[in-house]
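Troubleshooting entry. The earlier prediction with pyridoxal-5'-phosphate gave an output that would not parse, so I re-checked the input for stray whitespace and re-submitted. Clean input:
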Amino acid sequence: MASELSKIWLSKPHMGGNEQYFIQKAFDSNWIAPVGDNIRNFEAFIELYLMHEVHATVLSSGTAALHLAMIMAGVGPGDTVLVQSLTFSASANPVKYLGAHPIFIDSETRSWNLDPDRIDEAVALSKARYGKTPKAIVPVHLYGMPAEMDAINERAKHHGMVVIEDAAEAFGSTYHRRDCGTLGDFGVLSFNGNKIITTSSGGALLCKDSAMADRAKYLATQARMPANHYEHEEVGYNYRMSNVLAGIGIGQMEVLAIRVEDRNINHHRYKQIFGGLRERGYHVQFQPESPGSRSNRWLTTILVDPEQNRGLTVAEINREMERRQIECRPLWKPMHMQPVFQDAERVGGAVSEQLFAQGLCLPSSSNLTEAEWERITKALEDIFSSDRP
Ligand SMILES: *Cc1c(COP(=O)(O)O)cnc(C)c1O
């Protein structure tokens, strides 16, 4: 029976080997708390990897990091925030937590990320509809592919908007030799179970100066003033990472650079597989990497236009892969198409809608075995078959 086969996941955790040593250190010191050496050391490792361009605060999730970044950007009730439409809902939800309005921006076709040429239009829309300039803008590096940050930063500066760089999928990616996460006013990382490195759940907020990072740490620990009786002048949050999970993070930092290489090797393998299918009359496209960008290739994604692929659709590929216990997934459904954001304003939408209609994420774990690669290759060769009418 086919169900005897173990499932091949889209992106699964891949431990480096030393994680349990650092977890044990938390137990040995009894710092089973959102305080301790592992937290400080995990932050120091992140800062070192990012060449001390930023100050890191590790948190309970990437979503928490986005929420704190928006608070520090001054987003409040009735404000507006520009958000890339083609993304995971966590990029946009914190706008709603704050009683503000997201305005969604379509993608360009060069990296599939926020189209910088649409920013002026979105700002004009914000002024016309809500009577104010947006407080912040949230570009996303989709599947690890860097957005056009120079142009985005330039337009954001022109309009006085804070840039919150959602690098949740892009730890290890670079843009003109600078690390994703260090390119905006704030950077956000995620260590959720499916990301390139994981602490099971967790995230980090990256700030440009230590005063900002101190404020992030303060807000993330219930906005507790340094007084013995717990003085509070502001509303706080319980968003700090556990010292136990930070131990996993240290072990994962040791292997991040290798994971980036592994995922890029995955990408090359898929290029070879689909290159071989060209002689059968199939032409899939990959997410383009522009000169100066280097994606961590967190997920390898393809576009399948039925007209260039003998009528084959992504729905059919997805179904056939699922039948073989191989997990694939469509691209993120654009936020402007989501029922929860149906009242939100947007500029454009046709590009992200087309990407959603024809895009598919392929299994991209860094610990795929040769046997799993054989199953994936065989499945794709069956589905993109030579005797399709
Ligand atoms: C995973 C992800 C997040 C949220 O991170 P969590 O740690 O799961 O809260 C935010 N934005 C994008 C684009 C993501 O992929």
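This one parsed fine. Residues 61-63, 87-88, 90-91, 140, 166, 168-169, 190, 192, 203 surround pyridoxal-5'-phosphate (CB under 6 Å).
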